[in-house]
Amino acid sequence: MDSRGLTVASLVLILIAVLVGVAVYPTIYSVIEETIAGTKTSTVNSTFDTNANGWKNVVQGNATSGWENIGTNGMIYTKTTDNDATKDNVIWSQSLSVGTLAIDEAIVKFAWSVAENTGISSLTLKAILENTSGDNITLWQSTATATSAFASVENDVKSYITATGSYKLKLRAEMLGSGASVSVKVQWDNASLEFVSGQVTGAQKTMLKLVPLLFVVGLLLVAVSWATKYK
């Protein structure tokens, strides 16, 4: 093979190295990102796409509760049509256990909406974290009575994770109606309690983020070295 042929072969080798690098870069980057992000454990069925499996609900009074689908969006709800001057309460809940206190993040997320407010006298919505001792910690509260679109809420609850064991997220609605016609309805969606551990931070995080790029550069340097040696 003449020198021209070898030159073409060398360029082909370099091109192959570039294509391989481009092809594997996203996979390597994804693995690195997962490593940096740590391990997440979460309550199940947060989006309620097809049902409310995994969640418990306790009804106090004459309220009703359940799962529903509006359009393409699944959600859970609580509702009262009662006007007996006694609050009707519904609590949706789910537990999540933590086996280590080496937690990098602990987050509660949910979305809420007041869908109906006919004959409403008062309404109190709460997001509560029950700790391993059974204490109820109110993370968020609203007394809004106007109908509303879904609003998203996120709370950092890491400071409340002080012992290993089971923690419970509770979504509570306290509804009171009055008058001849009452229809008060609250909806919840995208609800979860999440624990994240094993996150990589600082200099280690910076170095890990460079790994995919260094791999591609190294692959290219090897290809160039071989192409120069055998040109």
Oligomeric organization of the protein chains: single chain
Question: What is CATH's topology name of the largest domain?
Answer: Jelly Rolls
Q: CATH H-level name of the largest domain... which superfamily?
A: Galactose-binding domain-like
* Mean of pLDDT: 84
Structural class: alpha+beta
Helix content: 25-40%
Given the C-alpha coordinates, what overall shape results?
A: elongated
What's the structural domain tally? 2
In whole angstroms, how far apart are the ends?
A: 11 Å
State the low-pLDDT regions, or none.
Answer: 1-5
Radius of gyration: 28 Å
Characterize the largest beta sheet: strand count, sense, and whether it forms a barrel.
6 strands, antiparallel
Q: Can you tell me about this structure?
A:
This protein is α+β, with helices and mostly antiparallel strands and 231 residues long. It has 2 domains: 3-37 and 201-229; 39-197, Sandwich (Jelly Rolls), CATH 2.60.120.260. 27% of the residues lie in helices and 44% in strands. Strands 1, 3, 4, 6, 9 and 11 form a 6-stranded antiparallel beta sheet that branches. Helix 1 packs antiparallel against helix 2 (202-229). The radius of gyration is 28 Å and the shape is elongated.
